[in-house]
């Protein structure tokens, strides 16, 4: 793909952001578009984490908390689990999310509109943690999500634009960007170049392009491993989720414009 083609992919967003001063803003602020260049593996996972919710989520500090579920209990053996579901949640097409919409690869029984019981074949005391992982997102029968951003454009496996959902139940504490845009580039060199040239704000790369100025970027690490690199134009919280790359794949809801 030529340089012109790559630039054209981001024509729908604003011009490359001016570099902000180093450091994180004191408080999140709304506005702007997050643009990311992602590998094929990260693209699908990042889109899913942006458009859909799980029953549970792992916070940036590593703690487990409810997302579409508000609380849960299990029997002594860890074979039977009951989850209470959040009230007032709708899919992006307006369909209500309730117990009938829970779709998981387990034996599920609906107790009432906002409670389900999951029965396992083998005891698993870590089931709530499992349900926070990629692949357990909840979708409507038509494929709509309940996440902070709804699909505005999706070229499957290649290009995604999502718009923030107004009045979302999480909107007081997350989802600061007006929109997000992900583009998939298989070659790390291309993702590095896109980041260096200001075409994107973040890329899942292990190292900067040789011509990039390190002062313009922030490298996020998990131990000795670089998980992604972001422009200084993006404010990344001091505590970043490390269960999976890209702030537990939730960069779209946790970061903001610097």
Quick rundown:
The protein is built from six helices and 15 strands. It has 258 residues and is α+β, with helices and mostly antiparallel strands.
What is the second-level CATH architecture of the largest domain?
3-Layer(aba) Sandwich
What is the CA–CA distance across the termini?
31 Å
Beta-strand level of the residues, as a percent range?
A: 25-35%
**What is the CATH class designation of the largest domain?**
Alpha Beta
The overall strand count is 15
Number of helices: 6
**Taking Cα atoms only, what radius of gyration do you get, to the nearest Å?**
19 Å
Order of helices and strands: HEHEEEEEEHEEEHEEEEHHE
Structural class: alpha+beta
CATH superfamily of the largest domain: Periplasmic binding protein-like II
Q: How would you describe the shape?
A: globular
Helix content: 10-25%
Q: Which residue ranges are poorly predicted, with pLDDT under 50 across at least 5 consecutive positions?
A: 1-24
- What's the structural domain tally? 2
Instruction: Give the mean pLDDT.
Output: 90
The order of strands across the largest sheet is 8-9-10-1-11-13-12
Sheet with most strands: 7 strands, mixed
Classify the fold: give the CATH topology of the largest domain: D-Maltodextrin-Binding Protein, domain 2
């Amino acid at each position: 793909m030529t340089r012109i083609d790559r630039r054209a992919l981001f024509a729908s967003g604003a011009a490359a952001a001016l570099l902000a001063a180093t450091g994180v803003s004191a408080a999140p602020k709304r506005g702007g578009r997050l643009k990311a260049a992602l590998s094929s593996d990260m693209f699908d996972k990042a889109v899913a984490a942006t458009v859909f919710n799980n029953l549970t989520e792992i916070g940036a500090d590593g703690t487990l908390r409810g997302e579409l579920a508000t609380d849960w209990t299990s029997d002594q053996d860890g074979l039977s689990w009951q989850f209470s579901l959040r009230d007032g949640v709708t899919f992006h097409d307006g369909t209500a999310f309730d117990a009938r919409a829970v779709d998981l690869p387990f034996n599920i029984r609906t107790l009432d509109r906002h409670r389900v019981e999951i029965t396992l074949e083998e005891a698993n005391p870590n089931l709530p943690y499992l349900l926070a992982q990629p692949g357990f997102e909840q979708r409507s029968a038509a494929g709509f999500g309940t996440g902070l951003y709804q699909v505005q454009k999706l070229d499957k496996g290649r290009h995604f634009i999502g718009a923030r959902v107004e009045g979302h139940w999480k909107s007081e504490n997350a989802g600061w960007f007006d929109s997000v845009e992900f583009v998939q580039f298989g070659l790390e060199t291309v993702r590095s170049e896109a980041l260096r040239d200001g075409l994107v704000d973040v890329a899942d790369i292990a190292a900067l392009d040789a011509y990039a100025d390190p002062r313009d970027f922030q490298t996020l690490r998990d131990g000795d491993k670089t998980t992604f690199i972001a422009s200084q134009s993006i404010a990344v919280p001091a505590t970043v989720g490390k269960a999976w790359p890209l702030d537990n794949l939730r960069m779209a809801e946790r970061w903001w414009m610097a």
